[in-house]
Amino acid sequence: MTAPADTLRLEVTALGAQGDGIAAWPDGTRLHVPGALPAEQVQARRAGPQRAELLEVLRASPDRVVPPCRHVAEGCGGCALQHWAMPAQSAWKRARLADALARAGFPDAPVAEAAETPPRARRRADFALRRRPDGTVAVGFHPRGAAEVLDLSECHVLDPRLFALAGQLRVVLRRLSALGREGSAVVNLLDTGPDLLLRTDRPLDVAGRRLLAAFSAQAGIPRIAWALGEALHETAAQAGPVSIALSGVAVAPPPGAFLQASPQGEAAIVGAVLAGLPAKLPVRPRIADLYAGVGTLSFPLAARGRVDAFEGDAGAAAALDEAARRAVARVKAQRRDLARRPLLAAELAAFDAVVLDPPFAGAAEQVAQIARSKVTALVYVSCNPAALARDGRALAEAGFRVTAATPVDQFRWSAQVEAVVALARG
Ligand SMILES: C[S@@+](CC[C@H](N)C(=O)[O-])C[C@H]1O[C@@H](n2cnc3c(N)ncnc32)[C@H](O)[C@@H]1O
């Protein structure tokens, strides 16, 4: 029997940015084959203009392993690479960083080995919620490219305390009328326990508030914030204070605040940022921490100099400011939108070193000012190789060179590449 015309034997030549195998269809089209690995031969069916579905692995990569989680076979969007051995993943992430730097104009950048994070270490989760017709609630992640919610019965990336919360949410949300059809639950695991931000599709009534207050007290969740869809959140229940120590400084982050994905990832990034500063800074140096969040980098940087921290989100900037006032006189926090109002070249003249950790889109406007300024020492923390390549090009053209580049594999089993890049000029 011959295979249908849309089903072919393909050679997988590379891995794409989303973690898909890349293979060429006979007409030359570059196709993404989720689940396939470089150097494999696979049987695949054309499933779209640029996509093929993996039917069978005919010749497996020596780096193919059995995924530890059962949800991989269901297409869970949480992990893209559980079927690939960790050393191969780390080498690929390192190569992606080297490639981004080469595209920026730093072909000889010294790129270190990737720092790996262990399983079950993730301290942030963004659970999708979906009420089923029988009233029960699925709590989990979306399968890749699909709107449904995969109800999690296990998870190998989340801290077990976060995973346990998914089970508790399943029970309490069944009785919460504010969850009509769908919503989300963003949870940060703080030192004081899980901090929950619930987004639902119906208003929260008095009975709902009572239910959440009882859940907060009984489940050891000091704060539950609630929002209608994407509206601003409000506190729905508060049983106690919230706090997380960042390099020894207690911070009370706002609900849903950005935190580095795991304590190990945070430690690796902080270590690489401090190592990336010039060994010799002037007496009483001043350091700018741009896109500072709630101060993950500001507080450790204060050990090296006075820190001016700039952050666009009002809640995060206020939390950083309050923690700094209480604990670290050497950190001064300011709210500032660095896309609309980047620190100008003249303002940057006050600093002996600049650290920036922009969001996924990168920092085009801010980098343009840095390029124009007299800054000579820069540490760029990146979560997006494409943005790093683009911002890096402006820095290369302005005379910077890369002195160290460290990939941090803090999103284990995902295709995401995080990196700390130290640059200098002059
Ligand atoms: C990748 S996080 C880094 C936060 C912090 N450095 C850390 O390690 O936790 C990026 C931060 O940039 C902030 N941000 C996003 N767009 C911004 C803008 N236009 N101006 C200033 N800050 C912005 C976000 O609120 C977020 O806190």
Any overview of this molecule?
With 426 residues, the protein is an alpha/beta fold. The chain has 3 domains: 7-64, Nucleic acid-binding proteins (OB fold (Dihydrolipoamide Acetyltransferase, E2P), Beta Barrel); 86-118 and 259-424, 3-Layer(aba) Sandwich (Rossmann fold); 124-244, OB fold (Dihydrolipoamide Acetyltransferase, E2P). 25% of the residues lie in helices and 30% in strands. The protein contains 9 helices and 22 strands. The protein has helices at 86-104, 160-173, 206-219, 263-276, 298-301, 314-327, 345-348, 364-372, 385-397; strands spanning 7-15, 21-24, 30-33, 41-48, 51-59, 115-116, 124-131, 137-141, 150-151, 182-190, 193-200, 223-228, 234-238, 244-246, 249-251, 286-290, 306-311, 331-335, 353-356, 377-382, 401-409, 418-424. Strands 6-21-22-20-19-16-17-18 form an 8-stranded mixed sheet, sandwiched between helices. Strand 16, helix 5 (298-301) and strand 17 (306-311) form a beta-alpha-beta unit. The longest helix has 19 residues, at 86-104. The chain starts with 6 loop residues before the first strand and ends with a strand. Residues 258, 260, 291-293, 296-297, 311-313, 316, 337-339, 357-359, 383 line the site of S-adenosylmethionine.
